[in-house]
């Protein structure tokens, strides 16, 4: 749920909640990940009126009309035509103000949001230390990173910016003339403001806790600041990211967040803003929504040319220009830059032919074409040589040749100046970092990587193998040797395609239980024809799987090995903390570290089931997967990791829920355990047999399938980005077979919680059952078997609670028994500290 920590009355507040926007075609999410906190602006509506209009800027680049503008593509989901027109108008303004050779993709969703929320937007990712990064160990928003690198740094179809706007708001003004009525909110202004955040008017600082202290911190995947954060200065002139003064995750850093005075310090921004540094919004009470990453509202009042990026906007206020302050900040962060694009020269065995150096140079500020040079040396850069690169109009490249003389190593880097004399280099940290070329007989074999194919369905009569191969001189070919079962090995050459090598082979008839062995061999173009074999020993093995005959009932306690399930991730084993074997997801399962990815772990039953009238499936399970946001349910945007049982009529497509997905919140003992041990946002708690809970599912109850149909069943664990837990364990599976010998648990151990354990002063016993258990007899024994306590717990409802004062107990191990009216006994060993 989107929310602001505080909302000022009579204002339309832009706040930046600490969360990450995760969008995919099927599911959009707002989420905080481990160390990564991205400020996603949230816009709130109020009734304050400011009838002012700041006109859009003239169609110019930030600094020069000599370079290409940006291309911003927007994928609209749910927008009306008039909303699209206004949105496109705002996009058109930004396209005229920034430059990038890489298309910026925005995903915009027109969707109901929380009442009073108008919209939200954020970068989809941050990158550090990429090719062309101006500063080391600083995170750049993905759109800015791609601009600086001069190339795509994610897939071309992926989004750099994610945004959503409230379709339930009835007070939008979609006009583009700036004549916004006093009862309306100007949609163009909101879109301009939010896109600015998506382009980089944001950072990675956030409020956190350490013990009982509130601390300030920053970080993404690593504990490194964002590029915006590098310019934040306090009243004394100290950088907030100077860890000698303000250690990361410290109270001293958080004090600066609440200092009441922060500026964006850089001489370029000062010269563009009446000789004063831009004042940032840093109220005395920290607001995770609006602090730090807005301009100070009392400095840039409504109607000020730079008021777009203040934290509030009123009805009737139309600001169609980012303003000089914001543009100067963008200029300094890198939106005005000179990018040198160059492919590092490969090694060579040719000891006489000069090396041809080519580079493309793109300068937003205008390029001094006589300044493009290559600096090179045969040893170190104490006394390097320099060659000017000459522009070739036919290729739009700067080029020249480095002479070579026999076997050697050449180190080099490229430099260029813009028209103001600012120096740029590639690599950006040159000469500390540089390119190098080895000249002489090659001794380096190629690198070869490959994701092995481990499973193939018998219905698929083709096998596709993909590999990546690189070499310092060049790759001659990549070949595959393979054999089906015990047949002779065959050899095929993979085809080169883009950055990969691939081959699809047609297989003879294969059936369940067959196997394919294969290995890959990469050979380079050197005189030595050096090779790399993968795997280095033996072969990869592809297991052929097929479906069995349909049955009306099925049961499995997983104690006897079988091949009844198809999976590359689930497995059958007796895990630590369990008495016998069960079907398991990976422990722990993993989560991707990119906002536009997810992992799915699946296990498919090879026996399709002929559904009976009122047919049911039951099993015992432990579910320790990341819980969604409080109050959410399956298919909600912030319902994060989950497990689910699904069915399909063909076993490969159109999987539909048998039961809606659920997470650790489905049982209080699971949730308590999941949260009992954490590392960042990840749970390190492990499952045990004591957490087993019985589940019974109607196979036809939700209407997706009906009696008489033959349905394939699968278990699936969905893992979204950034947080994970122990996973899923399934035992005593029974499908449409109430007479089976496999026992189910009447009262599951996992339905009763004993906490804390170890305990010191008080022990709590809580039950959350499917029905009222009746009176429960509680007995406690010490480690010698002496009964210390016996009493009844009232069980007139499905939920019960007992609190025991153990402050006078001696330290040691105690046995706690719960005897239920149905004769079932549940026991726990409790440690008294």
UniProtKB/TrEMBL annotation:
Q: Please state every residue range assigned to the domain named Secretion system C-terminal sorting.
A: 755-831
Q: Where are the transmembrane segments?
A: none
Kindly list the GO molecular function terms attached to this UniProt entry. metallopeptidase activity
Q: What is this protein called?
A: Putative secreted protein (Por secretion system target)
Known InterPro entries for this protein?
MetalloPept_cat_dom_sf, Secre_tail
Organism from which the protein derives: Mangrovibacterium diazotrophicum
């Amino acid at each position: 749920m989107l929310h602001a920590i505080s909302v000022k009355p009579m204002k339309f507040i832009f706040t930046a909640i600490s969360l990450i926007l995760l969008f995919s075609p099927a599911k959009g999410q707002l989420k905080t990940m481990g160390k990564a906190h991205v400020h996603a602006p949230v816009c709130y509506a109020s009734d304050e009126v400011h009838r002012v209009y700041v006109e859009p800027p003239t169609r110019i680049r930030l600094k020069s009309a000599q370079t290409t503008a940006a291309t911003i593509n927007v994928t609209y989901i749910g927008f009306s035509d008039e909303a699209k027109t206004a949105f496109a108008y705002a996009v058109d303004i930004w396209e005229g103000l920034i430059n990038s050779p890489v298309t910026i993709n925005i995903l915009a969703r027109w969707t109901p949001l929380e009442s009073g929320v108008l919209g939200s937007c954020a970068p989809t990712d941050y990158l550090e230390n990429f090719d062309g990064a101006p500063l080391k160990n600083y995170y750049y928003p993905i759109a800015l990173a791609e601009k600086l690198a001069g190339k795509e740094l994610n897939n071309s179809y992926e989004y750099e910016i994610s945004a959503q706007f409230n379709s339930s708001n009835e007070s939008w003004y979609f006009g583009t003339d700036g004549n916004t009525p006093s009862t309306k909110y100007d949609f163009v202004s909101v879109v301009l403001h939010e896109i600015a955040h998506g382009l980089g008017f944001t950072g990675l600082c956030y409020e956190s806790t350490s013990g009982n202290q509130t601390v300030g911190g920053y970080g993404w995947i690593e504990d490194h600041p964002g590029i915006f954060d590098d310019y934040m200065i306090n009243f004394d002139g100290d950088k907030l990211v100077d860890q000698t003064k303000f250690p990361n995750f410290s109270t001293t850093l958080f004090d600066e967040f609440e200092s009441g005075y922060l500026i964006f310090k850089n001489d370029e921004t000062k010269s563009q803003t009446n000789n004063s540094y831009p004042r940032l919004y840093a109220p005395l009470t920290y607001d995770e929504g609006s602090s730090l990453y807005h301009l100070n509202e009392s400095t840039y009042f409504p109607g000020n040319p730079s008021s777009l990026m203040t934290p509030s906007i009123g009805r009737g206020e139309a600001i169609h220009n980012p303003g000089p302050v914001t543009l100067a900040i963008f200029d300094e962060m890198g939106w005005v830059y000179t990018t040198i694009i160059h492919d590092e020269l490969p090694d060579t065995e040719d000891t006489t032919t000069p090396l041809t150096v080519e580079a493309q140079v793109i300068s937003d500020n205008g390029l001094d074409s006589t300044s493009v040079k290559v600096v090179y040396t045969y040893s170190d850069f104490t006394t390097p040589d320099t060659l000017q690169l000459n522009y070739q109009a036919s290729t739009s490249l700067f080029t020249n040749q480095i002479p070579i003389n026999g076997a050697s190593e050449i180190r080099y880097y490229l430099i260029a100046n813009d028209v103001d004399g600012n120096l740029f280099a590639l690599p950006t940290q040159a000469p500390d970092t540089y390119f190098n070329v080895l000249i002489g007989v090659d001794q380096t074999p190629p690198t070869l990587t490959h994701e092995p194919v481990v499973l193939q369905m018998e219905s698929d009569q083709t096998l596709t193998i993909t590999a990546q191969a690189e070499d310092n001189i060049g790759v001659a070919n990549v070949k595959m040797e393979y054999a089906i079962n015990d047949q002779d090995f065959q050899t095929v050459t993979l085809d080169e395609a883009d950055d990969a090598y691939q081959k699809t082979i047609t297989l003879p008839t294969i059936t369940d239980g067959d196997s394919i062995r294969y290995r890959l061999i990469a050979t380079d173009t050197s005189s030595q024809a050096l090779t790399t074999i993968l795997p280095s020993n033996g072969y990869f093995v592809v297991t052929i799987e097929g479906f069995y005959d349909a049955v009306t009932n099925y049961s499995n306690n997983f104690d006897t090995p079988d091949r009844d399930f198809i999976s590359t991730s689930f497995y059958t084993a007796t895990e630590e903390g369990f008495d016998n074997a069960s079907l398991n997801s990976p422990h722990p399962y993993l989560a991707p570290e990119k906002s536009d990815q997810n992992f799915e772990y699946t296990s498919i039953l090879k026996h399709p089931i002929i559904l009976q009238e009122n047919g049911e499936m039951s099993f015992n399970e432990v579910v320790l997967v990341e819980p969604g946001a409080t109050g959410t349910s399956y298919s909600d945007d912030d319902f994060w990791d989950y497990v689910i049982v699904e069915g399909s009529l063909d076993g490969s497509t159109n999987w539909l829920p048998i039961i809606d997905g659920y997470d650790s919140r489905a049982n209080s003992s699971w949730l308590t355990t999941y949260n009992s041990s954490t590392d960042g946002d990840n749970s390190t708690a492990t499952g045990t047999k004591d957490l087993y809970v019985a589940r019974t599912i109607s196979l036809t109850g939700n209407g997706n399938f009906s009696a008489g149909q033959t349905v394939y069943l699968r278990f699936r664990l969905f893992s979204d980005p950034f947080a994970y837990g122990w996973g899923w364990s399934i035992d005593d599976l029974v499908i449409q077979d109430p007479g089976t010998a496999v026992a189910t648990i009447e009262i599951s151990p996992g339905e009763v919680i004993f906490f804390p354990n170890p305990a010191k002063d008080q022990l709590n016993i809580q039950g959350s059952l499917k029905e009222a258990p009746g009176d429960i007899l509680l007995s406690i024994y010490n480690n010698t078997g002496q009964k210390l306590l016996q009493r009844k717990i009232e069980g007139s409802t499905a939920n019960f609670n007992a609190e025991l004062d153990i402050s006078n107990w001696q330290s040691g191990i105690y046995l706690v028994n719960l005897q239920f009216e149905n004769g079932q006994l549940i026991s726990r060993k409790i440690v008294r500290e």
